Amino acid sequence: MPGVKIPMKELLAGYERMLLIRHFEETVLALFKKGVLKGTTHLCAGQEAVAVGVCLLLTGDDYVTSTHRGHGHCLAKGGSPKKLMSEIFGKQDGYCRGRGGSQHIIDLSIGFLGSNGITGGGLPIALGAAFQQKYRGRDGLTVAFIGDGASNQGTFHETLNMASIWDLPLVVVCENNLYAMHTPAADTIRDGEIAVRAAAYKMEGLRVDGNDLEAVIGAFRQARSIVFEKKRPVLIEALTYRKYGHSKSDQCIYRSREEEAAWQERCPIGLLQKKLLHGGVDGEHLKKMEGRVKRLIVEAVRFAERSPAPVLAEGRDMNYCYRTFFA
After folding, report:
1. Is residue 128 part of a domain?
2. Is 2 inside any structural domain?
């Protein structure tokens, strides 16, 4: 429940996973700027506490669906930095053999049902996953990560309605970073609040500080309790802020530098670092942790660079694709 003290061991694990996501994203951005990577990407730097706070409490029986901004969700669920980096490089050792790229990643072995380039596209997939969990009497729940823009899509309302009438084990986690591309959420959502929409479907709606790892963990614990004890789906709105633009080419001309500076003061990693140091964690321990994370990212880039290019013949064989990704 919110307000419950989170053990230091759990916070440290969360801190390390948040560092992994941040350094992964900033390395990807640097590689795009150098021209090593082509195309585009959507970074989740600044939003790490939401993905990590939720996924720390997930088990092997739980599923996750993601968005176009999905690197962090994959890594938070336990994904491989090497395979993820290789996919962004378009290499054979990537999650989708280099065919999916930055926006389309899937790892069924960890219950990561895929990121999705379509706004709100992961919601129906999550609904189906939660339905089969209940229908087959399986343990676990499904988490659908979405952005604030997706809350205005028809799939959002259809998913909440069906999850509610069927009492499905579904938690929709809306990462409200205040902008749908360049459009302020306040211009498209009444009062800018999304959690209240749960009431229309007789669901619990929780609103939480998405930059506070402890708060996110507390909110998701409450949501998990509702799912398993009351047998009801839940909507969580996590208020957060992306450090960079909508995509790698977005210069954020629609945001003021004052607004960005204010949110930088609330960086989830910085906030958690202060909390850990205040709680007695040695600063050297945190530096060593960050060093380990940086080495993991260096290894991931080397792995991706050395990975072979996709095999053209395999891409033409639809039976091969099906066996590879879904068998």
Report:
1. yes
2. no
Range of the domain at 275: 8-325
**Going by C-beta distance under 8 Å and a sequence separation of 6 or more, which residues neighbour residue 218?**
1, 2, 3, 4, 6, 208
For tokens 């990693």, the residue is 269
The predicted-structure confidence for 156-170, as pLDDT tens digits, reads as follows 999 999 999 999 999
Rounded to an integer, what distance in angstroms lies between the CA atom of residue 153 and that of residue 144? 14
Structure pTM? 0.93
Q: How confident is the model at residue 326 (pLDDT cuts 50, 70, 90)?
A: low
Cβ atoms 11, 214 nearer than 8 A: yes
Q: Which residues pair with 174 in a beta bridge?
A: 146, 237
Residue 12 contacts residue 214 (beta carbons within 8 Å): no
- Nearest alpha carbon to residue 111 among 133, 88, 89: 133
* Inter-helix orientation angle 283-306/81-89, to 10°: 40
pLDDT digits (tens, 9 = 90+) for 207-221: 999 999 999 999 999
- Containing H/E element for 71? helix 71-76
Residue 107 DSSP label: B
Query: Is 36 a member of any domain?
Result: yes
3-state secondary structure of 172: strand
Residue partners of 177: CB distance under 8 A and separation at least 6: 46, 47, 147, 148, 240, 241, 242
Alpha carbon distance 298, 230 (integer Å):
45
324: Cβ contacts below 8 Å, ≥ 6 apart? 97
Please state the domain count of the chain: 1
Residue 223 CB coordination number (10 Å): 26
Tokens 């999905």 -> residue: 70
Q: Of residues 106 and 311, which shows the higher confidence score?
A: 106
Number of H helices, E strands in the chain: 13, 7
Task: Report the half-sphere exposure of 304 (CA within 13 A, side-chain side).
Answer: 27
State how far Cα 43 lies from the chain centre. 10
